[in-house]
Amino acid sequence: MPSIDLTGKAAVVTGSGRGLGLAYAHALAAHGASVVVNDVDEAVAEAAVKSIREAGGTAVAEVVPVGTTEAADRLVARAVEEFGRLDVLVTNAGILRDRVLWKMTDDDFDAVITTHLKGTFTCARAAAVRMREQGEGGTLILVGSPAGQRGNFGQTNYSAAKAGIAAFARTWSMELGRANITVNAIVPVAATAMTETIPAFAPYVEALKNGQPFPDFLRKGEGFGTPEDCAALVPFLASEAARGITGQAIGIGGDKVALWSHPQEIAAAFADGGWTPDTLADVWPTSVGAELQSVGVPAPKFPEA
């Protein structure tokens, strides 16, 4: 395995003022990449840049809410102005507006779709244009979620956006392959502001803040850890070591890394001349419908007291 050296490469990480995005930005900078940090809060963005520089890395801040074409163009332009090029884009920016379907407003839906789904689209499009102009390939790393892979109660907007992001990765890997631009979705699981409110994890997150590490059943069994545990995947995918990896959804968290499957047919039945409702009802229980798929993010399996 070649060493991971990103010296001379420039990266944009959206939503990188704190949490997972900040961990990704630090990891890229630690392996030699110059990074454009992005956040909607100027103070948070500048603090992130300061922390990267103090660790010996190179970074600048671009304060803009992700979603519009104008914001995407600003982020790409900032990388080119500061570092002369763009090689890596990590689309991490996101928000939550959780509500069950019958209580979710248009604004709740639109805000999450704009930031996650449209923001990923506009930023990836701007980055792809630049990378194709450079003619040297590149890397798009799209941040997904288990909610997008399996659905999650109360997250109509978020689950839909993250499912769309996984579909982006598959589609764009085909469209950008000839330009040597790899596109993958990552599916991180970590203690962040978004997950620490989950009651099952709350005691362990609080213990982590007090200096106690996560137990093995979380780190290995659930693949749940810190943002820094997820960060290694980003410089790896941005490196030459991962040049042959594209169109994939890759999970990481705690001590675990995993490859998610693509949606695919798992059972089929056939009827000469086609189907009627009655023949479907007759055949369904013993053929296609014999073993239906589960939904939702599985609840954590905690050890018995």
Automatic annotation (TrEMBL):
Chain ranges of the Ketoreductase domain: 9-192
Record InterPro entries: KR_dom, NAD(P)-bd_dom_sf, Peroxisomal_Beta-Oxidation, Sc_DH/Rdtase_CS, SDR_fam
Keywords (A to Z) from UniProt: Oxidoreductase
Keyword Oxidoreductase appears in the UniProt entry: yes
Regions that span the bilayer: none
Pfam families: adh_short_C2 (PF13561)
PROSITE patterns in the cross-refs: ADH_SHORT
Entries under PANTHER family matching the protein: DEHYDROGENASES, SHORT CHAIN (PTHR45024), SCP2 DOMAIN-CONTAINING PROTEIN (PTHR45024:SF2)
Family: Belongs to the short-chain dehydrogenases/reductases (SDR) family.
Protein name per UniProt: SDR family oxidoreductase
